[in-house]
Amino acid sequence: MVATTQQTPKEADKKKADDKKVPEKAEPKKEEMSEEDQKLEEDLNLLVQRLSEPDTTLYKPSLETMRTLIRASTTSMTSVPKPLKFMRPHYNKMKEIFTSIVAPDVKKLCADIISVLAMTSDERTDTINYRILGSHEPIGDWGHEYVRHLAMEMSEEWKKEGTSDARKAELLKLTQDIVSHHMKHNAEVEACDLLIEIERIDLLISYVQEVDHQRVCLYLLSCAPLTPDPDNIILIRTALQLYLKFNRYLEAVRCAIMVNDIPQVHQIFAKASDPLLRKQMAILLGRHQIFLDYEGSADSDALAELNSNAHLYEYFHSLARELDIMEPKTPEGIYKSHLEHSRPFGNSAQPDSTRMNLAAALVNGFVNCGFGVDKMMAETEEASRWFYKNKEYGMLTAAASQGLIWRWDIDTGLAQCDRFLYINDDYIKAGTLLAIGIISSGIQDACDPASALLLDHVQSDRSIMRVGSILGLGLAYANSKRETVTKNEERGVIFELKKVLSDQKPSAIPEVKGLAGLSLGLILVGTADAEAAMEMLQALMDKSETELTDPNMRFLALGIALIFLQTQDKSDVFVESLRSLPDPFGAMVSTLVEVCAYAGTGNVLKIQKLLHLCSEHYETPAAEKKTAASRGPRGPAPAAATPARPAAQPGNVNVAGTPAPTGTPAVAPAAPRRDLPGAASAATPGAPETAAADATPAPPAKPDLSSQQAVAVLGIGLIAMGDDIGSQMALRMFGHLIRYGEPVIRRAVPLALSLLSVSNPQLNILETLSKFSHDSDADTAHNAIFAMGLVGAGTNNARLVAMLRNLASYHYKDQVSLMLVRIAQGLTHLGKGTMTLNPWHSDRQLLSPSALASLLSICFSFLDANNTILNNRQHYLLYTLVLAMQPRMLTTLVEDEMKPGSLKQLNVSVRVGQAVDVVAQAGKPKTITGFQTHTTPVLLAHGERAELANDEYLSVTPHLEGLVILKKNPDYQPVVVSTKK
């Protein structure tokens, strides 16, 4: 008997209402679908049903119809194609059908369809798996979205652990299909991204065509700074191979320079046959201070001349005459001190003080740099009178400033210096030797006058002569890899400098050894020369812990670091070796070498490591003493001892930080230490427990590694200067460091900020530095003032000039700060506003090692400025900036028809505007914006780019900067202007 449930009338009504509601909800969905969509859904359902039936003859036509319907659908960025939408519920059914199909061709067709359907499923790798099992039809037939989906899954699948070699081969075959499709359809960026993801960028070379190789190479080179080591080198080398494939030798040379591969530069140079192209390459190598040997070339003399920078001063003077700025300027003309705010009691800073005279000598050199004319040293008597206004090392610095005036002009400059080599004063002679090094810097002369004049004094018995000659050699041969310099035999520059490291003469003072290390680092910059670095490390290991505290030993450490500049992982062994030196010196040196090795790479992991170093807190011995004093006695004293233990008074604290015993005077230099054996006997009689309590040893203090933190801050700026995004991120980090960091970190931040923006006075950085130039901590203020000079170097920036003038009024009582303000003013007007200290050149893609080394050297010196540049002794270190000084001009040259093989200057129209980033942009985008038309020679500001205004001439180099060779355009048709009315 079946039991029936009785429904109440109320329940029956409710059920009826519910039954009515269901179709009401479902009906609008059916109404939304058009008749066309309904028919498509029914057709697809019917096709799937046919595939489920036992009649196998229907399988192939059904699958072909299905394929046609799916391909006919238009794909949209915002919606899933209708056939895929309607087929989605049948996805698992299709996979079951696939397993049951026997015929191979039908099975492959089914796999193709499932591969496309898998785009809408949650199975991550079905698109790839079924594509591999499919018929391998052209990959683009299923649409761009399908190809993109395959590429997206490919990177995940490739990186799975335990993938067999056979599977990798299948994936690689599919990758090649995807890349081939991308390259044919102007999707070069997607192709590069895929190959970078699976670490097979070498495959790209066979797919790139001449028409798109420029876009591909530009993308690879712009990705390099954002890619970790060693992938960044692989990207640059791939671009190099592509350029060579299409005979773009000049661009290939630039790539070889980026990876510091000098043998490759030689090979590319040998392949180039166009004489004008070879000359342009020689100019580029000279700008980067890579000097080649052209013996055996048909045009060897012309190439050597262009490569040697010997005529750079002539082109610079031509620019100066064009701008009408040849008239020499005086320091007072720069300061304009009459515009500084008047003070109620007059100017208390003596105008003829030693520091002001020193500043005037430096400013005179900076402002008239390279012009070969000034008002202070025009005549021998006048110059001598000017030198003698200074004392000792001040005379050396003043005499060396003549090297700046005659910069690049070896013939005239050496003749001018010669008159001071026979004066009786050693300081002026030493300064003149340094001036010779400054004039010769970056110039290759067949006679090698610098080594002929300076080597004789390297082993002198007078330490001051050694100082001038050793630093002079370092500047003259910075980044020079010439055999005459590097040969390890008598009278070789490197050999003589190495001898100084182990010299035991009385004149081999620490200052001389420190400078020898720095000069070796400048000459061998970026070579990773393990032999020279090992000798310098040995010299440091021979020093006692006390000797390593000498500030000059830091320059030996800097020399080692410069040898490994931009060498990345080649420095790893040395970084570990340097940790064996006693702390804090060992920690500081190893960090310094590591940051130098990754300078300009933008390596995020290294920056994170340096930030972690900055987060540590180290108490200096003085701070610990102060803390212990504020804590008073350690723990409560026993009741019996209370009357005999007065409260600790200020100054009544002995060396260990505990209160002095009863009866000792307020200042007790000879008070016995409680923490030493036998100290208990000095305690108050009748209080043995107290003495015993105080005799417990204090916990060992952490070593003061603050010097390592200062280097780490500098390192963040040095590494992040490689790309704009990294620089922006570093700016934010410095904001945090300067607010919450230790004093030593705050002092280093202004210098690191200046490294991010050398000769590029951005308003936010200027405002930050201006704020810290008024800081209560003198060292922070000094560093900020000098950093302002670096940021505005050679720009004549009006905002900065006004800031510095206000600073001069603010610091008028402080001679040291005022001297730095004057130097910053001189740097701002460097070369009367025609020069730059920025180490990047060639459209900001090449980083000059010697320029970077000079900026790092000066910033590193300022980390301990009171013991180096501001100690009235080593202010000559400011001349290391010479290596970074370059005119920011554009001068155009053409072949001289009267003298075949030589070049002459030609003035043409160029458009100069703000550079636009065109990486990965479609078509042929404009590379500059907001341009103005000028006639060469012209000045290029930071971030500006130039292009020829018409087609009359073609440029040999794609980047118009420095000296540019032009050639006649054979297809040029001059525009004929009609005069008819």
UniProtKB/TrEMBL annotation:
<feature type="compositionally biased region" description="Basic and acidic residues">
    <location>
        <begin position="10"/>
        <end position="32"/>
    </location>
</feature>
<dbReference type="GO" id="GO:0005634">
    <property type="term" value="C:nucleus"/>
</dbReference>
<dbReference type="InterPro" id="IPR040892">
    <property type="entry name" value="RPN1_N"/>
</dbReference>
<feature type="region of interest" description="Disordered">
    <location>
        <begin position="1"/>
        <end position="40"/>
    </location>
</feature>
<feature type="domain" description="26S proteasome non-ATPase regulatory subunit RPN1 C-terminal">
    <location>
        <begin position="919"/>
        <end position="972"/>
    </location>
</feature>
<dbReference type="GO" id="GO:0042176">
    <property type="term" value="P:regulation of protein catabolic process"/>
</dbReference>
<protein>
    <recommendedName>
        <fullName>26S proteasome non-ATPase regulatory subunit 2</fullName>
    </recommendedName>
</protein>
<dbReference type="GO" id="GO:0043161">
    <property type="term" value="P:proteasome-mediated ubiquitin-dependent protein catabolic process"/>
</dbReference>
<feature type="compositionally biased region" description="Low complexity">
    <location>
        <begin position="629"/>
        <end position="696"/>
    </location>
</feature>
<dbReference type="Pfam" id="PF17781">
    <property type="entry name" value="RPN1_RPN2_N"/>
</dbReference>
<comment type="function">
    <text>Component of the 26S proteasome, a multiprotein complex involved in the ATP-dependent degradation of ubiquitinated proteins. This complex plays a key role in the maintenance of protein homeostasis by removing misfolded or damaged proteins, which could impair cellular functions, and by removing proteins whose functions are no longer required. Therefore, the proteasome participates in numerous cellular processes, including cell cycle progression, apoptosis, or DNA damage repair.</text>
</comment>
<comment type="similarity">
    <text>Belongs to the proteasome subunit S2 family.</text>
</comment>
<dbReference type="InterPro" id="IPR016643">
    <property type="entry name" value="26S_Psome_Rpn1"/>
</dbReference>
<comment type="subunit">
    <text>Component of the 19S proteasome regulatory particle complex. The 26S proteasome consists of a 20S core particle (CP) and two 19S regulatory subunits (RP). The regulatory particle is made of a lid composed of 9 subunits, a base containing 6 ATPases and few additional components including PSMD2. Interacts with RPGRIP1L. Interacts with CRY1 in a KDM8-dependent manner.</text>
</comment>
<dbReference type="InterPro" id="IPR016024">
    <property type="entry name" value="ARM-type_fold"/>
</dbReference>
<dbReference type="GO" id="GO:0030234">
    <property type="term" value="F:enzyme regulator activity"/>
</dbReference>
<dbReference type="GO" id="GO:0008540">
    <property type="term" value="C:proteasome regulatory particle, base subcomplex"/>
</dbReference>
<dbReference type="GO" id="GO:0034515">
    <property type="term" value="C:proteasome storage granule"/>
</dbReference>
<dbReference type="GO" id="GO:0002119">
    <property type="term" value="P:nematode larval development"/>
</dbReference>
<feature type="region of interest" description="Disordered">
    <location>
        <begin position="624"/>
        <end position="704"/>
    </location>
</feature>
<keyword id="KW-0677">Repeat</keyword>
<comment type="function">
    <text>Binds to the intracellular domain of tumor necrosis factor type 1 receptor. The binding domain of TRAP1 and TRAP2 resides outside the death domain of TNFR1.</text>
</comment>
<feature type="domain" description="RPN1 N-terminal">
    <location>
        <begin position="44"/>
        <end position="340"/>
    </location>
</feature>
<keyword id="KW-0647">Proteasome</keyword>
<dbReference type="InterPro" id="IPR002015">
    <property type="entry name" value="Proteasome/cyclosome_rpt"/>
</dbReference>
<dbReference type="Pfam" id="PF18051">
    <property type="entry name" value="RPN1_C"/>
</dbReference>
<dbReference type="InterPro" id="IPR011989">
    <property type="entry name" value="ARM-like"/>
</dbReference>
<dbReference type="InterPro" id="IPR041433">
    <property type="entry name" value="RPN1_C"/>
</dbReference>
<dbReference type="Pfam" id="PF01851">
    <property type="entry name" value="PC_rep"/>
</dbReference>
